[in-house]
Amino acid sequence: MLSRTADHLFWMARYMERAENTARMLDVNYQMSMLPQSADEAEQGWRALLGISELTSSFNEHYPTVDARNVMEFMVRDAGNPSSIVSCVTAARENARAVRGALTTEVWETQNQTWLEFSRLLAGSDFHRDPSTLFEWVKFRSHLSRGVTLGTMLQDEALHFLRMGTFLERADNTARLLDVKFQSLIGDYFGAAGNGQGPAQESQEVDFYHWSAVLRSVSGFEVYRKVYRNVIRPDKVAELLILRPDMPRSLAACMNGVVLNLDPVANAQSADTMRRAGRLRSDLQYGRIDEILATGLHAYLTQFLDRVGDLGVGISRDFLVPMAA
Amino acid sequence: MNKQFDEMHSAPDMVRAHYQRYARWLAEQPGDVMRSRREEAATIFRRVGITFAVYGAKDEDGAGTERLIPFDLIPRIIPAAEWRDMERGLAQRVTALNRFIHDVYHGQEILKAGIVPTEQVLRNSQFRPEMVGVDVPGNVYSHIAGIDIVRAADPASTDGSGTYYVLEDNLRVPSGVSYMLENRKMSMRLFPELFSQHRIEPVAHYPDLLLDTLRSLAPASANDPTVVVLTPGMHNSAYFEHAFLAQQMGVELVEGQDLVVRDGFVFMRTTQGPRRVDVIYRRVDDDFLDPKAFRPDSTLGCAGLLDVYRAGNVTLSNAIGTGVADDKSIYPYVPRMIEFYLGEKPILQNVPTYLGRDKADLQYVLDHLDELVVKEVHGAGGYGMLVGPAASKQEIEDFRAALLANPSNYVAQPTLALSTCPTYVDSGVAPRHIDLRPFVLSGKSVQMVPGGLTRVALKQGSLVVNSSQGGGTKDTWVLEA
Lengths: 325, 481
What we know:
The complex is a heterodimer.
Chain A: H1 3-33, H2 39-52, H3 56-62, H4 68-76, H5 85-98, H6 105-124, H7 131-152, H8 157-186, H9 204-217, H10 221-228, H11 234-242, H12 251-262, H13 271-285, H14 289-295, H15 297-320
Helix pairs in contact in A: 1-2, 1-4, 1-5, 1-7, 1-8, 1-9, 2-8, 5-6, 6-7, 8-11, 8-12, 8-15, 12-13, 13-15
Chain B: E1 9-11, E2 14-15, H1 20-28, H2 31-48, E3 51-53, E4 66-68, E5 71-79, H3 80-104, H4 109-112, H5 118-122, E6 144-153, E7 162-170, H6 177-190, H7 192-197, H8 206-216, E8 227-230, H9 239-249, E9 252-254, E10 259-262, E11 265-270, E12 273-277, E13 279-282, H10 305-310, E14 315-317, H11 323-326, H12 334-342, E15 349-350, E16 354-355, H13 359-367, E17 372-376, E18 385-387, H14 393-405, E19 410-414, E20 420-425, E21 428-437, E22 439-442, E23 446-447, E24 453-457, E25 471-479
Parallel strand pairs in B: 5-25, 7-15, 8-9, 8-13, 13-14
Antiparallel strand pairs in B: 1-2, 3-4, 6-7, 6-22, 10-11, 11-12, 16-19, 17-18, 17-19, 20-21, 21-24, 22-23, 24-25
């Protein structure tokens, strides 16, 4: 297929996935902001969210204070922010429109309809009154987009590039979510600065709400209970979201998805990209959570994000950007 | 020619035979049901993304420039017998035009015979010297032609029979066929019962005919030819159609940046390396096709394409240089071309045309500006034209100045009373002017689907049907009795 077409498909899937994960991340912050906490703590949560998305300075240019309303405004419907949900939904649709011939009618109409309805939703009511409903809606449109893709597209290259985009973006987003949530509550608790003694007993209650919100943000609360049948502990949360290959939003599952979709499209110049992807997957496959925590979770996730970034660059270079003539 | 011809009514209370069943059905439809169907149609078109971009236009947010082309619920019906005549006339006309283009770039017999003035052809900006002596597959140049036809009341008849006239030939990159297909889909979806009550000729096989035509034009060296559609990109006003046709034919939709010339062939850049392309259905104008041969600033084409084309290693559809035959200054000679090349009498009529370049004609035009339609020779899309009877004194004087400054840039025709067809407007059902664009495919043979795209001028009294100027479209039925 055309390199340009593959590029649009890849980015269409990435933007839709990013819209979903942004909604998830905002929702978990919003849910946590309803727990008893000081104004400082609340502000810290929103700050961390901007930080991990690398948007702090862009936010500060346009908004005077960091608070729930401003951050949500910025992350939901500020078209000037390329990572806002409205920007992602628009970009997904524009990418789809550029290659609508390569999509099934249902896939295209789903993307187009999401874009049309999202604009209408934002115009029709004040989403700040009930942001969770809007976030739910975004999530379900993303589910629909994935479902209609899997349910109607021919299982050829086009689908592989779409799926690759989904998994690569999700790997990136889950890693960021983990990073921000582990940092915001306990600093780099699992890192070099930590004393290794675990959270104090009295904070267990706070922990429960914190970690259950994190789990819910990746649809992992019921999964956690089912897998561990135990109280919610941060190290297990980390294990679930990093190493469990059967947890659909874990880093391991995402990398399996990337490799699975990369293999069938391999070409003459992609050997190094294949190697990097396979290696990243093996690290997750054979990794252990105590080792990861010993090196420091933040450091680990930072490195993971770099490697995922490199992989994206490699995929672009090998497949998506037209070769020079 | 000022009497009005209405497609549905021969007199205010008289419904023409081929519309009677439809009119009975329409009379039974409650107004609110039709209203909600209009809304449903708009919603579906928007969801499906059947939109066009308006050059330079912005919506209130300063963003989206995509608009819907209004779809009118009331179909334009053509009796099958009328269509058979029109079909023969179209095949005859397009065949002669293709013979003309071939002749112009080869022996120039028609110029030697003095039938078309030589300088009219050779000095025409659409004449491409690069094409002289180049052989194209089957000697066919305009593989996809859109011939605009209007009907006007027959001045001699009292029973209101009308005459079809060819208004213009579009031989370069005519658009609109996707609307013809989507309009039919829409009316079948909204009014399935009508399709069981009427015997309506289907049109949905157009993409199949198109693919068949394009494949038949492939260079002899390609045994399983790769066909692509070349689009200027998603910001082009007809992008929806380009994507639609590529998808319906199951071929790649490429942009100039996806193509590369290497070793005398054209390749597209794919995820698995370069792949040879044999037939390019290009929706990019000649000027932009090859920055090495034509406009050097073009980013829409592919450098070196012309050389590959001239060597016969890729087929362009339509061919380069077809514009020399659809120029409005060449149009008056088409009936004589038909007689010259085919030895036949033209089946379809031309509208009488005055040439700005002709002294006597020019004087007549200047004296009758308030009665005539004056058009730029190369204009398209309803821009740069004067509709005399509808223009203000000031507009007429402005146009007179433009005309005098460059007379040969203009032609003029009497204002035809374009036929009307009942149409939904805000105040209810009212007659509005329409035209018809059938699409004629020429490869090994000449093929077309019955009917074409009917465009309707939604403004009362307006004769301008172009979508960029507030026109809408209708489903077009060729109806077996």
